[in-house]
Amino acid sequence: MSVQVRTVTGLAELAVVDRLFGEIWQGDPGSPVLSVELLRALAKAGNYVAGAYDGDRLLGACVGFFGAPVDRELHSHIAGVAPAAAGRHIGYALKQHQRTWALERGATAISWTYDPLVARNAYFNLAKLGAVPHEYLPDFYGAMHDRINGDDASDRLLVRWDLHRPAPGREDLDGAVVALDRSGTPGSLAGGKLLVAVPQDIEALRAHDPGAAKQWRLAVRDTLSTLLAAGARITGFDRAGWYVLRRPS
């Protein structure tokens, strides 16, 4: 993969980052998600603004800022990859660069939020990187009305990536109880190990059947929130599309 990931500070390059985010989330490079001014301020203040380049071509970008405790945890606010670069592992390269950058500055963890219904992101965050969910946040950003989120509620899982934690192993699903099945139907909440399904492709479902997408949103929200409130922990995400939860022994 002939891709270089590096930090971005110059106005011209920051403007390209801004246009890339607009293209990904709004379908229009001229509709910014952040702004060049904000990106410039974040970079100048010592925060993380980086891009993945193939030569001079920007393929992906990521932006993060430090949160409390100061200089110990980086919050990764936004990361995106150009649709044309899908399948080139740009997202993984960005995260590994961000990890190295954070460690060099004394940080021990990176946190971020993601939509719990997006199966590929859940697998990437939990199974591939080893981030750990800490909190379910209903409609965290309010109405977003962009190309990706549409009119769906902006529920998010807040995850924390311990930068010294080894990569997780594959989850063992033997003996697990299905709390929400693949049709979105609630099952049993009893058991020490539980499975919660998500749609195979929530973004396609939002486009073709927004009513069904909203039903999935409510079902996953209710199931995960109930289990987390009862003390269960999300320990991983299986490639087949299941959140794996365990109750404390």
From TrEMBL:
InterPro entries: Acyl_CoA_acyltransferase (IPR016181), GNAT_dom (IPR000182), GNAT_N_AcTrfase_prd (IPR038764)
A GO term for molecular function: acyltransferase activity, transferring groups other than amino-acyl groups
A Pfam match: Acetyltransf_1
PROSITE patterns from the UniProt entry: GNAT
Annotated N-acetyltransferase domain residues: 3-149
Keywords: Transferase
Protein's UniProt name: Putative GNAT superfamily acetyltransferase
